[in-house]
Amino acid sequence: MNAINRTMLKLSACVLLIGFIASCTSTTVDEFRQGETGIESDESVVILGRRQASDYETRSEFVECVGDRMQRGDNAISVVPEQVFIDAMFPWFEPRTAPLRTRDLEQLMAEDVVARKMNDFGIRYIVWVDGFTETSGRSGSISCTVGPGGGGCFGFGTWEDDANFDARVWDVGSLRNVGTINADATGQSYLPALVVPIPLIARVEANACSRLATQLKGFVNGS
């Protein structure tokens, strides 16, 4: 094996090692229960993203991810799609008019049309998801060159991703906030460049979605 092949082998091994590290994230889930829960087979949950903040919005893709996972596996729960619910309940759950507190929901439920549509969907719980993913600690550099014989990029970059999401569970039957669940996932992402940049992304948001959905499913089922 010549020196070039040995060098490429070492570089490939480094990339694989970095890829393994990048795939590992640290996820913490905290639950605060304020009331008893449980759900019947003919009842549903709707998961909504908070979007009243001026500096960020809870991504609809994350809300959809949580809902999809809650409908899978053992003790699956019926979840009404966010946009279907918002469209049917227009304008009461638009970002500017959505209830911020359970007493706001109580006032809404006094409207016959709102109560009727809630009943049509079979909504037992409204889950408000609030949060975002933040990138910090960027370091390293990558340079790219183009010449008569071709081009390529060389260098190394890294950064930290932190996904933090809260889920507040409102019981539509009792008009109470029955609990809050927080999921916080952190991980290091890497971008090695050996001719071609190879992004190795820590899947913090996917991990936060999975853990939050699992905890929510158990919470709503009363376990």
Write a structural description.
By secondary structure, the protein is an alpha/beta fold. The protein contains six helices and six strands. α2 (60-70) crosses α6.
Low-confidence stretches: 1-13
Largest sheet, in brief, is: 6 strands, mixed
**Structural category:** alpha/beta
| Assembly state | single chain
Number of helices: 6
Short characterization:
This protein has helices at 3-22, 60-70, 82-88, 102-109, 112-121, 204-221, and strands at 25-33, 44-49, 79-80, 123-147, 150-171, 176-197. With 223 residues, it is of the alpha/beta class. Strand 4 and strand 5 form a beta hairpin.
List the helices and strands and how they pair.
Blueprint lengths: L2 H20 L2 E9 L10 E6 L10 H11 L8 E2 L1 H7 L13 H8 L2 H10 L1 E25 L2 E22 L4 E22 L6 H18 L2
Helix pairs in contact: 2-6
